[in-house]
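Hey, I was hoping to borrow your eyes for a little while. No rush at all, and the record is pasted right below.
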Amino acid sequence: MSAKPRPQTKPTISSPTPLLPLPLPSSPSKRQRIRVPTAAFKLLVGVGILIYLVWVGGFLWECVTLSPGSAKGFALGSGSFAHTQEKAGVRGEGEGIISDKPEAYVTFLSSITDAWYLLSTRLLLYQLHHHPHTSDPSRPLVVLTTSQIPTAVETQLMHQGAEVKRVELLVDGFPIPEEMGENHHWKDQYTKLHIFNLTAYSRLLYLDNDILLLQSLAPLWETNLPTVKTGGVAGVGERNKLNMVENDKRTRPEEGEVKDYLNAGFMMITPDGKTFDELRKVRGYKPFYMEQALLNHYFDWEGAHPWEELDPLSVSHFPQKEDLTRGYYSLHAKMWKDEIDQEVVDYWEESVKDMEQFWRSRMIDV
C-alpha cells in the first residue's frame, strides 16, 4: 500500500524574487577607490616580478632534471600534469580510460513564467558555488537556457557564477501527451536532451533546478560510473516501472520495491554526440512523462543501454523530515507546492533566506 498523502503546506515565502540581485561592480566607484602611493606600488610590483621569476626558474629546472619516465605525461603547452588529468578523468570499469576534459554540474531553465523555477535555479547555484557546507567550487554549474529566458536573467546568472549556454528548443517531432496543449510549457522538457551533446565535458551531473542540497555533491564524482560503453547514464530510481501511474499524484515506493524506473531529475552522464542523435530518434514510448519516458525507454535495464545506479543516498525523490538526518546528499521536490513535511519546507525556506542574505551583504551602493 502506498503512503498516505501528506497535508499540503504553503511556504511562508509568498513569492519568489522575479530577478536576481544586482551584481557586484567590476571596480569600486570613485569615492570608494583606494589610492596607493606610487613608490609603494613600484615596490610591490618589483617584489611580485622577483617572486614570479624565482618560481619560473624552479619550475624549468625541475622539468630539465626530471627523467623521461618520471615526467608522468607532462607536455609543454599542456598547462597541466597528468595527476590533474587523472583527477578530472573518466575511468571505465577497470579499463583505465582517462579524459582531460572538465567535469561540470548542469541544469535547465526553460522559462520564468513560473518564477519559482528561477528562484530554484538561483538557490542551486548558490548552494553549489557559495554555501560553505554544500559547495563544490572545483566544478562549474552550466545552466542551459532557451530564447524564452530574458538576456538580463542570463547575465545575472553569469554574474553569480553560472556558465550559461543558450540552446535551441527541441519540440518538433517528439510525442506529447494528448491532454497537453501545444502551448504548454512542459513540452519544452525535451530540450533537456541537449545535455548529452555537451561533449566539451567528460562527465556531467544533471540536476533539476528544484534539487535542494543537504551536503556537498563532490564525493559522488569519485565513482567510476558512468561510461559511454556501459550506457552513459547513472541515477536513482523512482519506482518500479510497472507501478508508474500516468498522473501527477506521485506515490512513495513500497519497502523493498525494485526501482527500475529512472528519475531524470538527478543523473550522472557521459556526453556523447552519437547518443544525442539516437535519443532524438527514439519513438514508441508512452509520452506522459515526456523526456523522462524517452530516457527510460532508451536506457531500460532490459535494453541495449541499461542505466546504472548511483548511491541511493544521492537524492531523495520523495522527501520527508527523516531524510534531513539520514545522510542524503539532496532532496528533490517542488518545495513551494508539493505535499511535504513542514520540517522540510522550513529547511528549504531557511536556505532561500541564507541565499538572499548572502547576496544582500555583497551589494555595494554606488
Remarks:
- Residues 103-360 form a domain with the Spore Coat Polysaccharide Biosynthesis Protein SpsA; Chain A fold (CATH 3.90.550.10).
- Residues 1-5, 21-38, 51-57, 59-97 have pLDDT under 50 and may be disordered.
- The first helix runs from residue 38 to 65.
- The helical segments are 38-65, 82-88, 115-129, 151-159, 273-281, 290-298, 342-360.
